[in-house]
Amino acid sequence: MAKFKAPANFGGFSTGGQSYKADKKGFVTLPDGFPVDVAAAHGLIAADGTPEAAAAADEVSGEQTSGAGA
Known about the structure:
Largest sheet: 3 strands, antiparallel
Order of helices and strands: EEEEHEH
Distance between the termini: 31 Å
Structural class: alpha+beta
Strand order of the largest sheet: 4-1-5
């Protein structure tokens, strides 16, 4: 299982018949192997701050937080 930080006012989402909601601290636990790009599309950021999660979040938001031009 992987832990992700949810954005403010996150209402949750469902995919594949499974619903995911944030706990009281604002974290969502997703199964291992859950596509990071799908999590990022819902505004979730990996709690461990992996570069892959940050890159996926950047791609979805259209921002660039690392690399040239940052």
